[in-house]
Amino acid sequence: MRLRSSHIPNLTRMASTTPKDKLIFAPGGLAPSQYHKGTLQRSSLSPSPLTQFATWFTAATSSSVHQPETVCLSTASSSGQPSSRFVYLKELDARGFVIYSNWETSRKAEDVRGNAYAALAFWWREVERQVRVEGAVERLSREESSVYYKTRGRGSKIGAWASEQSAVLKLEGSIGTEERATEGGEAEEDDGRAVLERRVRDVEKRFEGVKDEDIPCPEFWGGIRVVPQMVEFWQGRDSRLHDRFRYTRCEEGEEGNVEGWRIERLSP
After folding, report:
1. Terminus of the chain with fewer CB atoms < 10 Å: N or C?
2. Whether 68 contacts 90, CB under 8 Å
3. What pLDDT, in 10s, does the model give residues 107-116?
């Protein structure tokens, strides 16, 4: 069938109708992309969201999803002020999802101290899938954290010691001007980066001669586990009629309980 010119979107006309008070408006245009790479049925789900997640994670890896361990971690302060950031999932065990970070100075550490709940969101574009997790947060022991810490590269271990994560890097005179000289030979005004680099050098000197495997895990650094109370699996479908299934933790004897979880299909 031959398309008439009237059937082809007029991009100029679309741009001219963008409200003047919008910096971005309907970026998908008149024909947003559709999802068609899979479906999801109740019969295909595992009784446990943790084993279901492991299955999907393996599939994402084999489908060359870019860094499928990347996850948005959301926390909230005791007053309800939310904050989000992207981190890496490092472990999944029988209790939940584990990530590692600085738990002394970071914003998430402050949030968790006053409100020990968090949410995770995974997006795997290549397979058109999402997973959402909500649950309570618990700290891993120093012994548990040290097991993973030993697998990190030397630079990452040094960085963990040197960085007061999320703390403001206060300028200290002209520190670092020589290291940050421009190609023209003029000193570049320090914006705080030189302070961080100096701290890294100090830590490197502190552990000079120490084998990589012998650099200890800092007391303030370690893992948290998000123990899920709800996990949702989302498979993209055409016309935004997505397949969504929610696992909700339930008590023994509660209606719909299958191995401690109730599974329900949600409207897209």
Report:
1. N
2. no
3. 999 999 999 9
